[in-house]
Amino acid sequence: MTAHTKALDVRFHDGRLVGRLLHNGPVYFVYDKGWLASGFDISPLSLPFSEKPFNCQAEGCEGVPGVITDALPDAWGRKIAVAVFAKEGWGRPTTMKLLSWIGARGAGALSFEPPSGQQDALTGKITAASLVREARAVLRGDPKAIIPALASGGTAGGAYPKALVMAHADGSLSLARRPVAKGDVPSLLKLSIAPNLNAAAIEHACGLMARAAGIDKAESKLIEDKDGRAHLLIRRFDFDVAGRRRHMHSLSGLLHRPKAGLDYADFFRAVARLSTRNDLIEAARRMVFNLYAGNDDDHGRNHAFLYDEDAGRWMLSPAFDITHVPGALTRGMTILNEVRPEWEKVSAWLSTAGMSAREISSMRNKVRDAVANWEKHARAAGVSPKDAGRITDVLADLKRAIDGKA
What we know:
Elements: E1 7-11, E2 17-23, E3 27-31, H1 33-38, H2 66-69, H3 75-88, H4 95-102, E4 111-113, E5 122-126, H5 128-140, H6 148-153, E6 162-167, E7 173-175, E8 185-190, H7 199-212, E9 220-224, E10 230-235, E11 247-250, H8 251-255, E12 262-263, H9 264-274, H10 277-293, E13 304-308, E14 313-316, E15 333-334, H11 343-352, H12 357-372, H13 374-381, H14 385-402
Parallel strand pairs: 12-15
Antiparallel strand pairs: 1-2, 1-4, 2-3, 5-7, 6-7, 6-8, 8-10, 9-10, 11-13, 13-14
């Protein structure tokens, strides 16, 4: 890797050139003329679909358009990057260097060329236990312990250890980039590492609860390693049934806004501009669920849209990163600029968004019924009785506060 990465091509999953990133002090994105003629608007709310070079100065975008920011690793991926860059002597991981390091290994349909470092797909089998050992090395700040497997699979976002993997029909895992054999499932593996060894089971239980509430939730399952630790394996939805990578865009990236500080009104407006009324109802259902379930990690990068290139339209992605993380002071996204509004206000607002009283009541009742069955979902996911009971108490307190009976 050169000391200063001056230019990168941005390509679609099929190799077509979307545009270029040019670093000459500020970073400018320029659409390719061929893409403008025959492609689609990859970021329709904030990035001009034109030949004019675009420099993004918005907070949280790191000097590049939000659709490019979405490809950058979040907290965990940056820890991997810092370790790899230190080991390789590449200096500070700037935005352009990070994109070059990611190359074609990130989520979504975009890739960045020329790539740097290890970009070949690693076809050998890996295990969750081996990834856990390497993740611990990263957390210890030991860059010499990084192996290619963790670096190759560690470009995912989020704050906690995880890796992009391929789950095979025989139950094994690898770092293959694309499904090849029948039963190959592109997946995200969330690793359980002390001190929060029960987090995977809690998130899986919350996923079961969300599905019971009628939410379109990304498929997940728990897998155990040889040491008996449970890890969460989530089916990636940025691949279609034909194995093609799908273009994905976060809410915060679409709006050129930081992931924190958004309100559900921002989410609803984006859905109304890009998608259908059914997706608007789905967005409302997710809001109501996150409110009652105590998921305060619902920030702007944890809501996303997918582009269907065959139909030529945008849609909500399946819900993801749904778990129980009630914040003491704030939440990922506010509702009516409040942290925990009472239901009467929420209901009145949903009616102004065009939802009928019957739709609102049905949505709320289904969510409350699902949350009331938390202990059943917790048992199914193997949540410890201590954690299940603690969450039961928190959910009861939340319900009283939201329903105005605190």
